Amino acid sequence: MRLRFAPSPTGALHVGGARTALYNWLLARHDGGTLVLRIEDTDRERSTPENVEQILDALRWLQIDYDEGPISQVARSERHKQVLAQLLDGGHAYHSTATKAEVDAFKAEHGSKQGFRGEAEPSGAIRLRVPDDGETVVHDLIRGDTTFAHVHLDDPVIARADGSVLYNFAVAVDDLDAGITHVVRGEDHLSNTPKQLLVLEALGAQPPVYAHLPLLHGSDGRKLSKRHGAASVQELRDEGYLPEALRNYMALLGWGSQDDETIISTDELVQQFSIERVSKNPAQFDHQKLRWLNGRYVRALPVDELTQRLEAFTGRGGLRAAVEISREKMQTLADFWPLAGFIFDGPADDPAAREKWLDEAGRVTLRAVRDALAPLAQFTQSAVQAALEGVVAALGVKPKQVFQPIRVALAGRAVSPGIFETLAVLGRDESLARIDRALRS
RNA sequence: GCCGCUAUCGUCUAGGGGACUAGGACGCCGCCCUCUCACGGCGGAAACCGGGGUUCGAAUCCCCGUAGCGGUACCA
Hints:
It is built from 19 helices and twelve strands. β2 (34-39), α2 (49-62) and β3 (68-72) form a beta-alpha-beta unit. α8 crosses α10 (287-300) and α16 (360-373) crosses α18 (399-411). By secondary structure, it is mainly α.
């Protein structure tokens, strides 16, 4: 199998494109095949080096690698010109100066169901000659056969008047030259496929096998865009998602394993993935489910590994102890600092929490807590726990009445990692200092 | 407008003629666990787009309708 991922560098890589890349990668790795990366940069207006770099960066982060490329499509313009000449010589294509208005006029005259047919002219853009009769059938691994009657097709422009080639032509030639056996791409290309097939047929070439993936939609059922929150791979990375979790989630968007499992490692995906099981209907991208799935992956990570990732994510060091006590409460890497940042930056400022838990009764309790903690020989989690449970028993109050004031004194908020763990991580001096500060304020 | 694709809980899906009183997961609701928040456990509400066929029998096959989406560029 020779597959390809062929993004157009007109913006950041979005999850839709990332999923297409993933599916191609999964198929290539499953089969021991080859994945070719091609950059479809024939739109010179919108294609930029920055966008190319963004795509490469996104693929690197996702750990989706490729075996050949990246190949720039414009770099192949000599070959494209050569094939263009071949089609012109063979009478399969012709120059035409017909404008959009003229095409519309043609249809008005011949009926809206009649595709445009032009006359050969000495100059102008180049159109592919579509046969008047007959049909082109797209054989699709996911959708079965789709028939396109030639009479409905316009003679497509395959090269601009300046000689530069257009997508439907370049794709067909490049896939052919790269020896691509399977074209796996979004369903938005299904209607383009007969044009590409016609180019290949004019060249007398054998077409690849096609598989058109269902499109990805946002939460409102419409095309995924900025409106739906993070839509690019970079944004997802910045929101603290793990690449392995994102791969798992994207795989599930349009595909289900036989036993309908939800958590599937990348290795298992490589083993199980098959194009035949890809569904035909569009899927909506659901941040909620991704968050949940990411939480599962976060919790499955060894503490050292998670610490390393969080240190890279936050740009801070010495996080291990804080990570250990807060990992159960995180769903994304971005959740860490709001939850545990107080350990390093000092207590947060939450007036509502102070008012509720550091009232007169809270302060009385906090003093008792201080007296119980100060003389501890070992300031370990278990020693702290024993001491505090002693305070609870001695005061005869609910545990919460003792723990919440401590929590607010240490963290400045009513939410934090477990209180025994937090005290142990902060250590005696810092803990007592924070308690004293709370009592003074 | 024309061409085409699609149609199972709110969402992602399992299902490929009888095993379906339609299963799982996210989310939601309730209970349990509990020092907060989470995690975890248990339970619950929630779907076969509509209409015709085919068949002894249809979520599954066919047709029509409807809806959504895609294409219809000298964009990709």
